[in-house]
Amino acid sequence: HFGTSVFASSPARVHIVVRRVVSASAAFITMAMVYPASQAVVVGGGLAGMSAANQVIECGGRVLLVDKSSFCGGNSTKATSGINGAATKAQHAKGVEDSVELFTSDTMKGGAKRPEVVKVLCGNSGADVDWLVEK
Prior knowledge:
The protein is mainly α. It has helices at residues 2-5, 14-23, 26-34, 47-58, 89-93, 100-109, 115-134; strands spanning 39-43, 62-66.
């Protein structure tokens, strides 16, 4: 279930991560021959899946998005406190002082176990949140 299981440093990079995850299998080779590069099937209608589908469309492709639920949103709909990001345009416009370093520190204090993933997540979070707001 790639839509909600794939971690990517930015929504625009989701399709690259999915390709890398799947490319190791023979199924990918068969699928690549059946589906032209201008078409994609995205499994999962959460934030990652919707972002991947949006990216395909923005690049001029066609996409089929499939989700197991009767509505899209996945676990992203459970994010009642919002989506975290440091140094966003909205924060800057409202004079909120924040930094990637502070977000990284808070995330690690919160129990994150993989500093290399936290660094990417927090480092790209501002631009990622801005991208979501703009789309």
